[in-house]
Amino acid sequence: MLDTALRATLNHLIGQHDWARVRLKAHTGCQVGIRVAGVSQRFRIDDTGLLGGETSDDADDVMIDVPAQAIASLTDGIEGVLAHARISGQAELAETVGFVARHLDWDREADLARLFGPIAGRRLHLTARHVEQAIPASAMRLARNTSEYLVHEGRWLADRTAFDDHVAQLRHLRDDLARLDQRVARLDRNESKR
Predict the structure, then answer these.
(1) What span, in angstroms and rounded, lies between the C-alpha atoms of 81 and 16?
(2) Measured between alpha carbons, how far is 91 from 108 in angstroms, rounded to an integer?
């Protein structure tokens, strides 16, 4: 069930880009394995450049191994995940699969237009893009406002000048303690000579 859904999703994305099908079609019959956090899926590239379900127990021509911690990098896009992934196997096929994975983008607008019509699809796409851009900006503003409140209103955090003053006082105290320690050591040496 999961492999069928994943294959259908990947084929949908590949199908939106002729260049991706052409690149993959050059490797017809090759088997590609994907292992994400220990869960493996296998696909065979068919003669149309899409991923077929008929695989064999033979060794994969290319294996993409994505560790579990790489999933957290998904917020950085596929580039963030692929930075942690290990791709092994036939060099030319590995390079092609990596290139397609890095450059494959979902054409949301086309899918939304097919579901809701061209005008509604365009507006939904633009709304989704604005929301995507607004979330990080809103998070930055929230973080800035929260830190400003904690520093100035709540007095729970020190502002930069107060922090720098405190660091300077600590350095001065450290230097005083070092001088005192040297003085005590000198007195102990003088006392032991007597």
Answers:
(1) 22
(2) 32
The whole-number pLDDT of residue 143 equals 87
Q: Indicate the length of the chain as a whole number.
A: 194
Is the pLDDT at 2 greater than 70? The verdict is no
Lookup: tokens for 111: 């899918």
- Residue found by looking up tokens 């899409």 in the block: 50
The amino acid at residue 23 is R
Backbone angles phi, psi at 157, to 5 degrees: -125, 150
Determine phi and psi for 36, rounding to 5 degrees: -115, 115
Instruction: Please tell me the pTM assigned to this model.
Output: 0.59
Kind of pairing, strands 62-66 and 31-36?
parallel
Query: Closest Cα partner for 159 from 170, 149, 173?
Result: 149
Cross-strand pairs, 32: 43, 62
Angle subtended at Cα 87 by Cα 27 and Cα 5, rounded to the nearest 5 degrees? 70
- Type and span of the H or E element at 179: helix 160-193
Torsion of CA 51, 55, 57, 61, to 10 degrees: -30
